[in-house]
Amino acid sequence: MIDAGELRRRTAELLAAYPPATTDRLDFLRARFDAGLAWVHYPEGLGGLGAPRSLQAVVDEELAAAGAPDNDPRRIGIGLGMAAPTVLRYGTDEQKARFLRPLWTGEEVWCQLFSEPGAGSDLAALGTRAVRDGEDWVVDGQKVWTSSAHLARWAILIARTDPDAPKHAGITYFICDMTDPGVEVRPLRQITGEAEFNEVFLTGVRISDRHRLGEVGDGWRVAQTTLMNERVSIGGMRLPREGGMIGPVAKTWRERPELRTHDLHQRLLKLWVEAEVSRLTAERLRQQLNAGQPGYEGSGMKLAFARLNQEISGLEVELRGEEGLLYDDWTMRRPELVDFTGRDAGYRYLRSKGNSIEGGTSEVLLNIVAERVLGLPAEPRTDKDVPWKDLAR
Known about the structure:
This protein is an alpha+beta fold. The chain has helices at 4-17, 25-34, 56-65, 77-90, 93-105, 219-235, 246-255, 262-290, 297-320, 345-351, 362-373; strands spanning 110-113, 129-133, 136-143, 154-160, 171-177, 183-188, 197-208, 212-213. The chain has 11 helices and 8 strands. A 4-stranded mixed beta sheet has the order 1-4-5-8. A 4-stranded antiparallel beta sheet has the order 2-3-7-6, with no helix packed on it. Helix 6 packs across helix 9 (297-320). The longest helix has 29 residues, at 262-290. The N and C termini lie far apart (55 Å).
């Protein structure tokens, strides 16, 4: 049984063999993965040691104290938070060995090809087709709201393989090489001026059956693993007190007394308390995650994350008055990551509007919380058993 003392010993051995001050960053990250100290709860040989997930903090603290490099988790969040747990759960031994190491080290960036322009919030209504051709699948369709597609080498993709089955039953899950012929990435310029998201067109893209995750037609169940992990990774981020969006507002309040009013004070107090409750609830969710797979509670956390960000950023704009309406830069960029706290109030206000769409719309998450967490009666759904090809579109 691996305990905290054993992890400290192994971490010390890693640091002695690969001193961070003199070792190339990528070489250090590869060595850390091979030593089982990347994500300690993963199996041996796949970056872990089969240890309790809660002990990861022991390794992280030792490495941070030694000045060791990390794998820039914000840049590769889709790979770490969504692709990796799905590959671990449903992938073959060959897939795990091929994809997990370069995913964790950041050598290969991942994106998520789920949402489609014609499906709206109903992901199960997707129309991208994958047709079997020998040992390959030929994929045609369009995806949208794809973060990091302009940087990604690999994508997790769901496509319809049986149009005669009901919409949830005819979907299969694939790993798509974003460098293959037929994959076209186009920027989507947002209200912030940037093109952080993309639309992706797939035309005759050939995917080997070796890159299928799970059974044919079982893609919806595989996708649930991805989606639950996605919502935990978005809504359950570890933050210090006054971390995230509430921090800049509280800082402005303390440093700019001339901006204060009684009404703004009351609203700030309310949101500060809600942000702290959300932070502590996220910590509880992570502790539950240590004991097993993420549950539907992550949907509630992601829902709260979106609402709080939008309310806090709106309060910040009001607090700052005329200067809150200013926006620093409309330059068309394709950024590698979203930096909420490193930009100005105008950026935070505009970018937070997307929080209620990305990672599951707030409307869909309300249904999930109502039905899966609170046990309320499900909404009537007349199309669950109708073949996808017969659905009105």
